[in-house]
Amino acid sequence: KMEEFLNLTQLKTSLKEAILLDYYTAGFCWAKEMNFSLIQLSGFMDLLNFALENLSSKHMTLGDNLKELERAMAGIGETESEERDDQNLFSIEQAKAIIDYLVTSLFKHYKAYEYLFHGRREEPVISNE
After folding, report:
1. Which InterPro entries is this protein grouped with (predicted)?
2. Which has more confidence, 57 or 126?
3. Residue 84: its pLDDT value, please?
4. Is residue 83 assigned to a domain?
């Protein structure tokens, strides 16, 4: 289902798509294990996508991406409507766990993800051997 949701069409032949599927699936499973509500799960997946998009599309450095993540997490749960009592989507403990997860899953491997998105790849040589 994740493959369809992410519109991965070359999963069997694209290492990049396989890595992206693993990244999002692992994040989804982790969030489910954390017993996040549906709204929290959606917010967490948005954070995963936000951090990865900053790297892949905006070519952000690790430092800049961390700053953007800090801003994004500070704004999570804010709403224009004052009718809502729950202003925070995640508890402080959950936010710390999310940061730990992102550090472990993405930021510790930032150079590898940079290479995945921006590294020059040589064309494969196909022969009879």
Report:
1. CLAMP
2. 57
3. 41
4. no
Overall domain count for the chain: 1
Cα separation of the two ends of the chain: 37
Least Cα distance to 51 among 38, 37, 34, 64 occurs for 64
69 is in which domain, residue-wise? 2-75+89-118
- Output Rg (C-alpha) for the chain, integer angstroms: 17
CA distance 90 to 36: 9
Amino acid letter for position 54: N
Angle (nearest 5°) at CA 30 between 25 and 32 = 95
Q: 48: pLDDT confidence band, cut at 50, 70 and 90?
A: very high
Residue 65, Cβ density class (10 Å: 0-12 exposed, 13-18 middle, ≥19 buried): buried
Rounded Cα distance, 52 and 106, in Å = 8
Residue 74's pLDDT band (cuts 50, 70, 90)? confident
Predicted TM-score (pTM) of this structure: 0.77
**Could you give the CA distance from residue 55 to residue 61 in angstroms, rounded to a whole number?**
7
Alpha-carbon torsion angle 98, 103, 106, 107, nearest 10: 140
